[in-house]
Amino acid sequence: MAGQVVVITGASGGIGRAATREFAKRGDRLALLARGELGLKAAAEEARGYGTSALPIAVDMADADAVEAAVERIEAEVGPIDVWVNVAFTSAFARFSDISPAEYRRVTEVTYLGYVYATMAVLRRMRERNRGTIVQVGSTLAYRGIPLQTAYCGAKHALQGFHESLRCELLSEHSNVRVTMVQMPAVNTPQFSWVLSRLPHKAQPVPPIYEPEVAARAVVFAAEHPRRREYWVGGTTVATLIVNAVAPGVLDRYLARTGVKAQQTPEPKPVDQPANLWEPADGPGGHDFGAHGAFDSVSHAHSPQQWVAHHYRPLAMIGGAVAAAVIAVGSYASKR
Q1: Do the Cβ atoms of 9 and 88 come closer than 8 Å?
Q2: Which of 139, 199, 259, 302 is most buried, taking the most CB atoms under 10 A from its CB?
């Protein structure tokens, strides 16, 4: 599947930045979308370092007209889009009562409607060709809300419903356009250093934490295998979603006791910490943040669960063969 035209939103940092490198390694022709021009420029240079092309486009994903224009430009300059990856988001670390209506609307417009606008623009073209893949980068929080992230959790829950509904429509049409969603665990991205925060201490992902390369590999695998409705990344994602399905009330009370403290380090929040809600932290006057956040020392570079999820078919075949052999041996022994 190398050599495809792949578009990544939120490509300037975090999961989007790591996914840029993974797709570049395959030799795909890339278009990279984000607001922060410094991060975009660095991401494009990294991609070109792998010998592929990369077109950076500065765009606010909450602007539907700008997104449509970006899609039109990509198709004209790079080629028909084969894979579209929605990653771009923003958030607010604060109690619900400390978020203004304008801030809440902004988080929703970027983190939910940004995905909708992008999907609208690219899906129309993919439908005409009857081919293409859209990967929605979700989160464990698309199923399970936690304190201090009401705006983000609400947006991801909305995205989950949107994804399921759209997938049903495409299936009913017998379309060859595929949509899939990747539910992420806690990831060591720069968001914890640039998202609007009204917490007294530095924000952090709830441990265990995974490096963005784990997430990026899951995105690439989903793009290569888009028939599955969604992918869960990391053992904690699997455990959380199962417990939430079985005993959500118990999880409510557990998170009420632990969720606020678990999302903060002991260090006070810097008074000069940027907030990228309205303006990018890696725009003029800022700097390139890269893919990784500040938690490398406590983050996991690999996920055994991810390896199993990506090899479940051969593992199932092996398990079936072993079970058949055990039954055969047992049957033979019982006849003696």
Answers
A1: yes
A2: 139
How does strand 201-203 pair with strand 264-268?
antiparallel
* Number of other CB atoms surrounding residue 162 within 10 Å: 18
Q: Which two tokens stand for residue 29?
A: 């022709």
CA dihedral sign, ordered 25, 301, 222, 109: negative
Sign of CA dihedral 234, 303, 217, 317: negative
Closest CA to 115 of 139, 130, 134: 134
Q: Write the DSSP symbol of residue 196.
A: E
DSSP 277-311: TTS-TTSTTS----S--S-GGGEES--HHHHHHHT
Active-site amino acid positions: 152
Q: Can you list the positions of beta strands (E) in 158-289? A: 177-183, 196-197, 201-203, 209-210, 230-232, 264-268
Model confidence pLDDT, tens digit, residues 64-84: 999 999 999 999 999 999 999
